């Protein structure tokens, strides 16, 4: 969802591909880790947005 997490995923994929191409297992693993971090960040952003939506909808019901 966020641009930072999307960029992190792309960087992770590039790093993983470079590691695989050069036979550098460590760099490939770093790439997979970067992708996982970006995915976790994206998931947290989505959860935060959903929580804010629930909060707003609950506030709206009491004011009717």
UniProtKB/TrEMBL annotation:
Pfam families from the xrefs?
A: CsbD
Gene3D superfamilies documented for this protein: YjbJ (1.10.1470.10)
Positions with biased composition (Basic and acidic residues): 13-64
Query: Which residue ranges does the record assign to the CsbD-like domain?
Result: 6-51
InterPro entries, alphabetized: CsbD, YjbJ_sf
Q: Family per UniProt?
A: Belongs to the UPF0337 (CsbD) family.
The name on file for this protein is CsbD family protein
Q: What is the lineage of its organism?
A: Bacteria, Bacillati, Actinomycetota, Actinomycetes, Kitasatosporales
